[in-house]
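Running this now, will post back.
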Amino acid sequence: MKERSLNMNLAFGSVLSLVVLLQGSWGHSQEVISEGMVEKKKGSVVEEKRDQNKRSIHDLLGSLQKGDKDAVILLKDAFKQSLDKEEKQQIASALLRAGIRDEQYFDFLIQHVKKVIESDIPFPPRVLDEKGNAKYTPAFLAWCEEHKVEPETAVKYLVSTFPKDVMYLADSVDPRAFDILLKALDSNNYIVAIAAAKGLARLQDKRAVQPIIKRFKRFPPDGLELVVPILLYFNNPEAEAGAEELIHDTEKLRRLRKSIAEHGFGPFLGFE
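Update: finished.
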């Protein structure tokens, strides 16, 4: 029982450190469109922009949010030309969020989330020993040996790659993602579950409220203040009741609501 408790604490320790990553990653990275990524032509405004090879994906995404139609064309070109998985994910996510509901973008994001859901890498990968030192779990090491994967590589998938795969789909705010995000929510990987819950909250589909409450009941109590704002984002009685069920301390919940009222959801969720 003691090691199980340590498992839970360390697993959630990973959540605490990765929450910052997840919140900061709802924005977009500033990868530069390299020369040759998009075909250079002449004659129109779009063609002139194709010559601006130092223009970053970040800038294009900003222009997309402002309704720049040229940015749509440039991002579509960048998606076709890019060989970088994460760059393609952020482009696909942004285009879907902008209402460009092309199947190729949705399918690209979905295929990676399916791999996350199907993964059998044991989580958490580490526990604390009696002296407080982190050590790999036997199950995790056995998995790595069986699959001939270095432990640190597998850890990276668990705490970075997998959560971001879910995050990019969640950030698309595409209603078609509801069912697969619901499956990701049930992941024993807390970080993946948080990313999925955020995506479901953004969809504002009330069917997700009870599954989120049920999943959060499996979280360590000390971490609930970090995830309850996801429920409060729904802004309906069922979600409010769920928040009260999870955080029994009424004063603590009052302070949390006050902070949200003063600062918005951004500091908690990474989006407004």
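Residues 44 and 162 are 40 Å apart (CA to CA). More later if anyone needs it.
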